[in-house]
Protein 1
Amino acid sequence: MAEQAVPGHNRWHPDIPPVVAIDPGGSYRIECKEWTDEQITNSDSADDITSVNLDKCHMLSGPFAVNGAQPGDILVVDILDMGPFPEHEWGYTGIFAKDNGGGFLCDHFPDSAKAVWDLEGIYCTSRHLPGVRFAGLSHPGLLGCAPSHDLLAEWNRRETALVEANPDRITGDPASVSQDPPLALLPLEKDALLGTLPPDHHARVAGEAARTVPPRDHGGNVDIKNLSKGTRIYFPVYVEDALFSIGDLHFSQGDGEITFCGAIEMPGYIDLGFDLIKGGVAKYGLDAANPHGNPVFVPGPVEPRYNRYLMFEGICVEDGRNYYMDATVAYRRACLNAIEYLKCALGYTGEQAYLLLGAAPIEGRIGGIVDIPNCAVTVGIPLEILDRDILPG
Ligand code: ZN
């Protein structure tokens, strides 16, 4: 991306100049790099995942200036179509090593692993996960409008407070006290790509610019699998011309994207329609509960139809300790229960089962979250994606 005539960017900052101006009412094809800027290869080794440079991530296309957009407007974005490039019909799912990225189950699976998927029209298969074939519910992982300077300062304030409250985990560096990943990633000048920003502004902007890893008020890296074709998303606008960016296209993903890079990651194209609702943020209360609001969306009408699921339950009890209403712990237990079952039913390794849960269209749900002290969470695997019956019997 850095070698392109008009490069994109891998940080959030309102001073990153737009690459092009677009009109509300129009639709446009946008091409996206894969989120690591294509550091991962179509191979049987996970060495590229082990050594991946995450400081370059996520590689985004944009920002796109939307003519006429003002702070307080809603930017309406329609996802009209998307797909891989014809010359690149493959993607991958990665388990990231605990000391370089980590993942939802990194205490159980500390080493890297990879599954490469072949994409054939709407379907995918992997030579690394035999017995599985499914239709992708394709979606972008990361999209949103640039923050205002005030909103960016707020992100940096609250994320710095989180990091400083846990000093043992500040760096994730092997020399630090703890080997655990840091709790948040603060601005980092190294490998910051800031589009066409003039060099004399680079150090200041890179020192303030937010990393792209978490979802935030504006949307960002939400990794919601249901932002699929046909979805309409309503984004709050914070700066003049909105400065919308997008990237991290996924051929498919399970709820939670649990292996960290749990989706089927791919470069590709996405067709978007844009419109504006003037003054919409106040009109529809998108700033009511929170001074900065969050996007809302209507999922698209086109998605794979699966009728039968094997659902795994989890509660917030782990290693003999009872947590209080902790849906994260409960989801982890549900996923670990699913992995143990798939190891038995499919003859998979734990890593293979974990990769499948990350990539396939699994459904994560909150059952009860009121019955003290335990919440009940489920994860469901669509049975039609497997080539054999795995039910008890
Ligand atoms: Zn992704």
Protein 2
Amino acid sequence: MALKENIQTLLAQVGEMKATSAEELESLRIKYLSKKGEITALFNEFRTVPGDQKRELGQMLNQLRQQAESRINELKEQFEAKQAEADKLDLTRTPDPIALGTRHPLSMVREEIEDIFSRIGFTIAQGPEVEDDKHVYGMLNFAPEHPARDMQDTFFIEKEKGVQKPTDVLLRSHTSSVQTRVMTSQKPPIRVLCPGRVYRNEAISARAHCFFHQVEGLYIDKHVSFADLREALLYFSKEMFGSETKIRLRPSYFPFTEPSAEMDISCNICGGKGCSFCKGTGWVEILGCGMVDPNVLEACGIDSKEYSGYAFGMGVERITNLKYRVKDLRLFSENDVRFLRQFESC
Ligand code: PHE
């Protein structure tokens, strides 16, 4: 009778057999079915059972063994299925590409300009975008009635709400304001590059915007000459647009430089032969420059008899257009990813 109870206890145990790993399952198999296992032991015991009980207990024992085996096989199959699923994961496979953002083309070009000039000793100077009249115009030799101060050109910060009139506080219209700040706070020699955003009151179109970006440069020392300016600009043009690039300086006018010039480079799109970009001339204008007017040096507290200097200023959008042929200025500020993605590999 004891055998019968043992069989029933084991039957109940076998029905509830659980394993969380292949190792656990193997130890269950050993526990019940191996040579020294509990079920095998019952078979040994069965030999001593009186003949009249053999039939019933024999059937029960066989049933117990079968149930144990099939439960173990069932669990084994579950583990194998899990393993097969895990084997499908190829950990050496190249991962799906993660979409990375791109650097903005204007930032890339600005950094390239900074890099080129830093190699000949220029350091970066920055200043505020909200400025006063003195730093943007006054100290730069603009006459009080100069048209640049007109409200068509300059954004003034309203003092009285809703009243638009020239005030002392304005959005800088060029980064020359940073140069006046550097000249009044540092002693020569000065060699700075002033990158930054500037604002002008223009109607937004493909060719004009109410803000854009400039990089201006200033070098003040003893005996700085126009030849030094020309040499620095030729170096820059070749580094930026290729060693074949030629430059041409045309006389111009700016209140803060004397003499002043505008610089053209040989059109890098047609190589100077003439195309629609350069309107058939073979040249494109890229910057304004000149020798710092002695009035400006004096206004900033620098002795114009001892020191001279040159300055130049360029629009980053213009340089970017030349490099990447962007036809519409608005693309730079709309943040359309279809446009920005085109610069992924640059
Ligand atoms: N400040 C001028 C502009 O905004 C550019 C310039 C800078 C010209 C320095 C000459 C010298 O157009």
